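Work through what follows:
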Amino acid sequence: MFNALSDPGVLRPMSDARADPLWTDTQQDEHRLRRAEMDIRWLRDIGLVGWFVVLQGHGYTLGLTPVWMVFAAGVTYGIWAYLQAAYARNIRRAAVTTTFADPVLAAMICLFTGGIDSILYPFFYFTQMSVAIRFGVWESIGIAVFNCALTVALFFAEPLYSGGTRETWITLGTQFFLLGFAGFMGAIIAGWARQHAALILEHARTLRESGERYQAVLRRFAQVQEDERRNIAGDLHDRMSGHLFGLRTGLEQCRRFIDEPQRLREPLDELDTTVRACTHDVRSIMNELRPTVLDELGFYEAAREYLTRLADNSPFTLDWRIDRSLRDWRSRQDAMLFRLLQEALLNIQKHAGARHVEVSLEPHGDEVVLVIRDDGCGFDPLRVPVGHYGLMTMRERAQTAGGSLQVESRAGAGTRVEVRLPRSDH
């Protein structure tokens, strides 16, 4: 029935590779990861400055000592990480590298400043939370295991380097707990942020699609307006040109016989017939544009008149039923409902190849329900060619009137269109 119609769901320009959801999701993920790396970069820089201040404050004199050599390596690494965050083509590979390099650097500086009891050990918590910002829960669990392994290594290696006594097992267990807590908190914060980011992206996508539908509706309405003007111009030319030619011919005859009153009767009678036909056609055109009976007597009588006339001139048999309780119904939706009825039946004539059509209008609670059913060729509402907006226009008309439109159809099984509008009075 609606082979030339379209559903809003097909409005996205799928010819562009960027419209592919997989491409879009990948790009969004890379953008998020790059943004996370840029944010972590500043935290890393602040951490390096903090390391310098802490080392100076705890009496580590500048020189070629293991502590300052590790710090110099950290500064070099920070510059590299900065360049990777800004310019790396494969940001995911760079993020994975810095995810493991950050705790390794923290372990090295802790090795030379007191092991797991080092004043700089809390930087392990930063590395734990930064993973949640970059990736997700499972990655956080993985880096937590990695950090625990580094902590165990520090637990055994630092006494060998310093020659001191090993920290107690309680201290090691405490650090494990704090690492896990930091990772868990980071995962919660990151999950919350991702959830809200997903909502924002979904709202943005909805707004974009709504804008596309709105633009499509505007184009469709502009096209409909031009088509109606073209049809009106054609009707006026086809119907009026003959009448105007007859009027001109009759006037010329009247001029010739102006001095012969007896011979004027025949051309005057012809002029009268032509004027009557012209008046009838003008009224017919006006009625097609907006039935006067719709304003005077309401939808019930307008629909009866339209369906009766259509039944006599359509290529299919038409059965229609309008509940008599709607005879006195008046509503702001009269014109909108009438246009929906016209457009549905017009599309059946154009595209359905139907032999039988049924139309019904019945009250249903606080709504009126218009159903148009045909036994035509049917179609797949989800596979309508792009650029055909008839179905979308009908749906927009129904939604504008505060109602809804549903289409049920499949190839070879006909089509059922249901329009529900509020049963509100003027």
The beta strands are 317-322, 356-364, 367-374, 404-409, 415-422. Residues 17-211 form one domain. The first strand starts at residue 317 and ends at 322.
